[in-house]
Amino acid sequence: MKNVSVLATSIGLALIGLGAAATAQAATYVVTTHGSGLGKTQLERIRAAGGTVTAQLPQVGLAIVEGGEGFGSAAGAIPGIQSVTRDVQLQWHVPEPEVAPITAEAFMNPPFSGDDDRFFDLQWGHAAVDAAGAWNAGFRGEGATVAVLDSGIYCSHADIAPNLVGGASFVPGETFCNTAGSSHGTHVAGTILASDNAIGTIGVAPQAKLLGVKVLSAATGSGSFSGIIQGIVWAVDNGANVINMSLGIQGGLPRGGQGANAVAELVNATKRAIQYANANDVLVVASSGNDARDLDKDADVISFPGQLPGVLTVSALAPEAWAIDPSTNLDLQASYSNYGQSAIHFGAPGGDSRYPGNEACQVGPVVQACWVFDLVFSTVQASNGSSFYGWNAGTSMAAPHVSGVAALVYGKHPGIKASQVESILRRSADDVGKPGKDDASGQGRVNAARAVAF
């Protein structure tokens, strides 16, 4: 890819807490129990061991505890406790867009479709999944709620605010509403459910409701296993139908090496949270990662959380030179996307910058380098009364297209089971690769219009 900012799944794993002994300074621990949580006696013994319980998650048999030196070994000896694992902090790389964001006020007329949202015609991904076909059939996501587990939301964004109904932060010192920092979560949310309000862009499910769940710092890009676990449980308990996790670890999460046992315990704890979501008929959607890896052959690492059981994993597809020829194939495998039949469930628009050269193209009133238009256009930050929009690419941009289509299905069928939604997505997907399941797009590229026909 070109040197374009990709607010996607590019992250590095910081070995904070891996294989390291707890120090006198308090550390965070994930406590896993054999039962449904901590009982009175266990709580007393945790306090006696120097621990402070910051969150109890009896729904999944976990607790989050702050403890000092020696806490891990002391708490691990308490009857009924399966494991006490020092949390691992992940360092996520979420740079600001290289392509300058633009405001809706800069362009007062939509390019060519006649839609009154000024930038709708830049959203080629919506054409790929035939979002308008679902809208024309009368389905726009009303009644569905999507939780975006990410770096927070610019809550004042004009396209986001109408559908935002709440949120929570599991990053110490930060609220889920951003006033500065990363736009990653805002870009993702806009693709899913930006309001059709005659201002800027439109989400795949523009009448679905949004829960903004911050599990990554908007300032530093860091986030923890415990934050993701708590975010999943909170989303389920607060009415989410779909959880979107455009998250991943650059190069994959190692299965072995230093601290492997601790990481395995934290992964298993995360699995409990995902199982809780599945049991409550919440569909969990995640990006596959941006390493161009064959996930069928990488036995030493996993795509996290994409390859966990109960997660729908999404690869990225993209056109090449769409601005030059809008009829071009929109379903080419993105150059950076992870792939593999064992891991990928669906493909979706993620964008790419592989088109060579930097000559200018114009789409309606918007002029940019031709390759820029092959990226995914969506909401970014909001400030000083203005709402901004911009391009990004990655499997982080692909996953929300799937989440948006899933929201349309939930909106049509109140009370539907998550397994039924997955079945509808599979049966309605377009077989864009080789016949049947394939490496690049799994069971196909999602199709909104066909999905709401079921």
From TrEMBL:
Gene3D superfamilies reported for this sequence: Peptidase S8/S53 domain
Keyword Protease on entry: yes
Signal peptide: 1-26
Residue intervals of the Peptidase S8/S53 domain: 141-444
InterPro entries in the record: Peptidase_S8/S53_dom, Peptidase_S8/S53_dom_sf, Peptidase_S8/S53_subtilisin, Peptidase_S8_Asp-AS, Peptidase_S8_His-AS, Peptidase_S8_Ser-AS, Peptidase_S8_subtilisin-rel
Coiled-coil spans in chain: none
Residues the record marks as active site: D150 (charge relay system), H184 (charge relay system), S396 (charge relay system)
Keywords on record: Hydrolase, Protease, Serine protease, Signal
Protein family according to the UniProt entry: Belongs to the peptidase S8 family.
Stated name of the protein: S8 family serine peptidase
UniProt source species: Novilysobacter selenitireducens
